[in-house]
DNA sequence: ATCCCACCGGCCCACTTAGA
DNA sequence: TCTAAGTGGGCCGGTGGGAT
């Protein structure tokens, strides 16, 4: 216990101070290599004759101070053990990313390779993790071990090894056998027909690249990371060694590597552009944009058909499309609420189109910024040039200087008597004949009448629309970016004012009123922003209508009702809460 | 020669994550 | 819900090099 408290050593991970700078991993490995069989006298082998590779823990000093519990022994991982660990790892893992129970298999394979050692599965997994993380082996060495492991498992399979292989392993082996070049990619002296062919393609490509000017190099396609392609690359790698060793400078190395890349493309049959980069022009419309635009076109066509059907067109072609728009068995085109359903579906599609439109704008903006940033990084001059507007800057002769001065001086020096003109009188006389609209007030009688049908039986239509407004009732809004809360109770869109109201009604406990109200405001913030962008609204206003279960009403309720143009009488404490139908009636009236 | 320090390596455990 | 894999972090041994 005391040891824990007085511990002064650093926490693992960080490398602190310079005193131990030389005591890194390398020095430790070097030491373990140098030690070989003979152990320094300060750390004698454990008396219980541990298996090879296990050494006693702690120096003589520490052992005296605190004999490790149960004579704990630590394993010394030699290079060959590390290699075997990796072999087992690669063999167990194969090239499948989602293989199951690989640790168990790896453990088994390791036990075959190092029968004298006893390590737990967790030990081994930790060790492999450590090896891979700390770059003990270089990439080339890792690749070699991987190849060895793969070919060894391949060999086992073909030789009918008795070691049981599970389904995945078998699948992997089968796949590997089917790949040309893999079986012969080992440096075992066997040169297959395929390898010879690859070598000749490689030489040809490198020769071609060497004599090719830099700007004429074709743009190479991105190659899928398939097993076959990787096998080709692996087979080419050892061939490159001699060329790279003979390379005199970086340019030559670059040429060799490009030639090799070209060869890989040719071997796997990847499509290469015929001429150099300059002639290759990318399509003006990007693929993502085309996809979205196609989707929008389809949706628009469907809206056309649905609208046509709603207005009475029963032609078979229209009917067929409409049926396809409403998949499912329990749906009839002649059911009573079909108009409502059509309206909803049409509105859905319109919302989707708006969202896709916004997505195109968003992506285009992003792409524009990306390209500008890239250009800024590579060639600032070109960027600023591209930002200039040639039709404004430097196009045609400038205005005469004397004229300009005279114009601006004349603007302020001569007093002008302003006159409204006769049109004002004309408009005023026309307006005089217009009768003013009666003020809209909701009386208790109106409310009573509305309540003849119990509010819980009232089933409003989710979408109502006229020329000036659109009203959603408990309807999700489709947005470009996913918004978690996209369904306030009521959404009212005033088309001309370009203003949207999001109304949410809540009945919390009385002590929660304030919190609830704030929560509502926060909850729909993102939706409000999305709607503003999607529908290009001037304003999107969130109006929470909160009444507590005990009838306590926040001060904001009156203001909010007034904002919505609803009579505030119903909001007094001794009145029952205005039901949804009343509220909606009022909303439609202000529409 | 011995101690001290800082760091790395090995081991273990608790916990999370992903997938069936 | 269970299992396997993966991860973070703590503990402590081992080590080299500087200080004493």
From TrEMBL:
The keyword Glycoprotein does not apply. Keywords: Coiled coil. Residues 339-366 form a coiled coil. Residues 11-23 have a biased composition (Gly residues). Residues 41-50 have a biased composition (Pro residues). It comes from the Eukaryota. Residues 1-76 are annotated as: Disordered. Residues 63-72 have a biased composition (Low complexity). This is (apollo) hypothetical protein.
């Amino acid at each position: 216990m005391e040891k824990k408290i007085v511990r002064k050593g650093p926490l693992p991970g960080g490398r602190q101070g310079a005193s131990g700078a030389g005591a890194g991993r390398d020095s430790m490995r070097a030491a373990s290599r140098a030690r070989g069989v003979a152990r320094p006298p300060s750390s004698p082998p454990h008396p219980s004759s541990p298996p090879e590779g296990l050494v006693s823990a702690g120096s003589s000093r520490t052992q005296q101070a605190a004999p490790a519990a149960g004579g704990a022994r630590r394993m010394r991982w030699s290079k060959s053990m590390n290699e075997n660990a990796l072999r087992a790892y690669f063999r167990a893992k194969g090239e499948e990313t989602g293989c199951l129970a690989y640790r168990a298999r790896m453990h088994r394979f390791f036990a075959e390779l190092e029968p004298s050692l006893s390590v737990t599965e967790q030990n081994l997994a930790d060790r492999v993790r450590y090896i891979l993380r700390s770059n003990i082996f270089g990439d080339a060495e890792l690749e070699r071990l991987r190849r060895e492991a793969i070919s060894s498992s391949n060999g086992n399979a073909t030789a009918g090894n008795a070691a049981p292989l599970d389904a995945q392993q078998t699948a992997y082996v089968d796949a590997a056998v089917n790949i040309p070049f893999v079986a012969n990619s080992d440096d075992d002296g066997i040169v297959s027909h395929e390898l010879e062919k690859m070598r000749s393609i490689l030489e040809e490509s490198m020769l071609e690249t060497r004599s090719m000017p830099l700007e004429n190099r074709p743009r190479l396609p991105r190659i899928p990371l398939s097993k076959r392609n990787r096998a080709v690359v692996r087979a080419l790698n050892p061939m490159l060694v001699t060329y790279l060793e003979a390379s005199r400078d970086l340019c030559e190395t670059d040429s060799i590597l490009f030639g090799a890349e070209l060869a890989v493309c040719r071997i796997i049959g990847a499509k290469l552009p015929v001429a150099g980069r300059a002639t290759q022009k990318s399509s003006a419309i990007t693929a993502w944009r085309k996809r979205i635009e196609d989707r929008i076109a389809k949706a628009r066509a469907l809206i056309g058909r649905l609208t046509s059907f709603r207005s009475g067109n029963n032609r078979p072609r229209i009917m067929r499309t409409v049926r396809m728009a409403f998949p499912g068995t329990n749906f009839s085109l002649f059911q009573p609420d079909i108009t409502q359903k059509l309206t909803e579906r049409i509105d859905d599609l319109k919302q989707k189109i708006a969202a896709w439109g916004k997505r195109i704008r968003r992506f285009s903006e992003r792409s524009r910024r990306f390209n500008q940033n890239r250009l800024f990084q590579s060639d600032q001059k070109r960027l600023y040039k591209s930002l200039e507007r040639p039709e404004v800057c430097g196009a045609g002769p400038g205005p005469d200087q004397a004229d300009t001065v005279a114009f601006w001086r004349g603007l302020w020096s001569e007093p002008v008597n302003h006159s409204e003109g006769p049109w004002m009188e004309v408009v005023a006389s026309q307006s005089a004949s217009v009768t003013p609209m009666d003020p809209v007030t909701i009386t208790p009688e109106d409310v009573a009448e509305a309540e003849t049908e119990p509010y819980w039986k009232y089933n409003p239509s989710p979408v109502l629309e006229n020329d000036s407004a659109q009203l959603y009732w408990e309807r999700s809004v489709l947005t470009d970016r996913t918004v978690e809360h996209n369904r306030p109770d009521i959404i009212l869109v005033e088309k001309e004012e370009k203003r949207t109201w999001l109304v949410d009604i809540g009945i919390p406990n009385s002590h929660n009123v304030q919190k609830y109200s704030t929560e509502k405001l926060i909850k729909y913030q993102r939706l409000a922003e999305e709607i503003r962008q999607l529908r290009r609204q001037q304003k999107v206003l969130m109006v929470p209508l909160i009444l507590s279960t005990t009838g306590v009403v926040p001060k904001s309720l009156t203001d909010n009702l007034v904002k919505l143009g609803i009579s505030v009488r119903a909001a007094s404490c001794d009145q029952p809460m205005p039901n949804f139908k009343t509220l909606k009636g009022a909303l439609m009236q202000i529409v």
